[in-house]
Design a protein that fits this description.
By secondary structure, the protein is of the alpha+beta class. It has helices at 33-43, 74-86, 130-140, 168-172, 178-188, 225-237; strands at residues 2-8, 17-23, 48-55, 58-64, 69-70, 94-100, 103-110, 113-117, 122-126, 152-155, 159-164, 192-198, 207-213, 218-221, 246-251, 259-266, 273-278, 280-287. The active site is at residue 47.
Length: 290
């Protein structure tokens, strides 16, 4: 099996969010879950994607953290298609279909920019109880009054708590109790917390973001496609994001891995369609002997 390490959502090495990408040999079935889990743990990145080609323009991808398999991973998908461009398996301009545990999704590549369709947006609940908001704030190391909107549990493939805070300064000073956050994530049945502050008017930035998922052995992540897809829907619900606009989310600055994640939302049916995308940079390429 071939592999690459890709920095997703960045055009510079050591920026963005690194992902492992493993390409199965032609005709090869997925290895056992145990092997894929051990491979992800050995590569030591937050997610590793395993790609199986099932057609000329169709792929099946499974995603593993060092701790467990997850249904979908945005940055590892961007990384996967970046790696396949490097291997000349996909074109710098093309449309592809992708089978995941979160459903069958579309991927569009235009001039090297990779955009992936998110799963159907779902609101799994709102935290309105003041005691529960205070509990969440305490776990995140902030004050309850720093929360500017009712947090909501949103999924576009993976569920996260959307946590809006009043300023970038507050965002930068979030210091979670990771053990408590892992327990709280289990209670709410979410991957973690996606915290954000709205960008200043005229800055061109929709929001600055930080993402925490200690339940999956990821204390903080530099770029999260599914979480920013969920944030796109959350801000659309609030009337902050409009259909047809290109939204820009900055993430990873607190980790010295600045990332730029773009999203687009369109409304053609009952539920909005959301695409999340960006660029990538290859760091390492090699072969895995299993």
């Amino acid at each position: 099996m071939k592999f690459q390490i890709i920095d997703a959502f960045s055009d510079k090495i050591f920026g963005g969010n690194p992902a492992g990408v493993v390409l199965l040999d032609e005709g090869q079935e997925f290895p056992s879950d145990d092997i894929m889990l051990k491979t992800a743990a050995e590569l030591r990145y937050s997610e590793t994607a395993f790609i199986k080609r099932v057609g000329q323009e169709k792929f099946n991808i499974r995603y593993f953290t060092p701790a467990a398999e997850v249904d979908l991973c945005g940055h590892a998908t961007i990384g996967s298609f970046g790696a396949m461009m490097e291997w000349a398996i996909v074109s710098t301009n093309g449309k592809y279909s992708l089978e995941t545990l979160a459903g069958c999704l579309k991927v569009e590549i235009k001039d090297g920019f990779i955009f992936m369709e998110m799963g159907e947006p779902v609101n799994k609940g709102t935290i309105t109880d003041e005691n529960k908001k205070a509990e969440l704030a305490a776990v995140m190391g902030i004050r309850a009054e720093d929360i500017i909107m009712d947090p909501e549990l949103i999924s576009t493939g993976l569920p996260d708590i959307m946590l809006g805070v009043g300023s970038k300064n507050v965002l930068n000073h979030i210091k979670p109790d990771f053990a408590a956050l892992a327990r709280l994530s289990e209670v709410y049945q979410v991957t973690g917390v996606h915290a954000f502050s709205l960008g200043e008017e005229g800055s061109g930035i929709t929001a600055d973001c930080r993402n925490f998922a200690p339940l999956y052995d990821i204390d903080e992540e530099a770029a999260t496609g599914t979480s920013n897809g969920a944030l796109t829907y959350y801000l659309y619900e609030k009337g902050i994001i409009k259909p047809g606009e290109t939204n820009i989310f900055l993430q990873g600055e607190a980790m010295n891995r600045p990332s730029k994640i773009m999203s687009r939302l369109s409304v053609t049916g009952i539920k909005p369609e959301i695409y999340v995308g960006g660029v990538y940079k290859k760091l390492v390429e090699g072969k895995i002997d299993i």
